[in-house]
Structures are given as structure tokens and as C-alpha cells.
Amino acid sequence: MSDHDQHDEQPHQGGGPNTSFLDFELHKVMYDEAESIVREAYRELLKDAAKRRLEQRWGDRIAALANLAVDEAIADADANFEIQAQIEARNEAQRSIEERIQTIIRGRADADEADSPDDDAPAD
Asked: In terms of pLDDT, which residue wins out, 59 or 117?
């Protein structure tokens, strides 16, 4: 016999058979949730009040610090983009050198083949 079946056979306060799905403590769960939300709302109000006070007392300094941080982050990003562009340009130049080397080697090999006597040609 399962726990569920045993639970159904036990007398229920205010419930009949096959009422094990009912949560007679639901009002407590709902109230606990309401208390949790109240705490969260209170924290949000405290946070909002703290923000207002910080704005009153240090608003200009906070804005200046935020602006400085943003400006520095943008300067770093711009520097990174410039460095990346230089690296990509250098990589492209190196690929070009590799192609030129291959052309020279193939051209020299072609020239060597043209200069060498043909093995099948009759000797003079």
C-alpha cells in the first residue's frame, strides 16, 4: 500500500476520502509568499531612497565617475579595434608575400624546365 493510499484511509480534518490533493495549509503558503513580497518591496523602497540620497549628495561626482569609466572603456575598445586592424593588415601583407614567393618559385621552376634540354630530343 502506498503512502498516498494510507493517507487517503486516515481521517481528514474537514475532508472526505480522496481529498489528499487538497492543501489545507494553502492559506499559510499564500501568506508566507505575501510576506516575502512585502520584504522585497521594502528592500526596493530602501534602495530607491538610497539612490535618491546618493543623487542629492554626490550626484555630480557619481555622474563624473560614470562618464570617466565609460570614456576609458570606449578608449580601450577603440585601441583594440585599431590593433586588430593593424594585425589583419599585416596578416594580409604576409599572405601576399607568400603568394609572391610561390610565384617566384613556380616561375623559376618553369624557367629551369625551359632551359633544360629535352631528354627525348636528339643530341647535336
From this structure: 59
